[in-house]
Amino acid sequence: MKGGTHLSISESLKRGTVDLLLLSLLQEKDMYGYQLSQELASRSGGLYTMPEGSMYPTLYRMLEKGLVSDRRETIGKRRVRVYYHLEPAGKEYLEAIRREYFSMNQGIVKVLESSIQTETEENLE
Question: What's this model's pTM, rounded to 2 decimal places?
Answer without folding.
Answer: 0.77
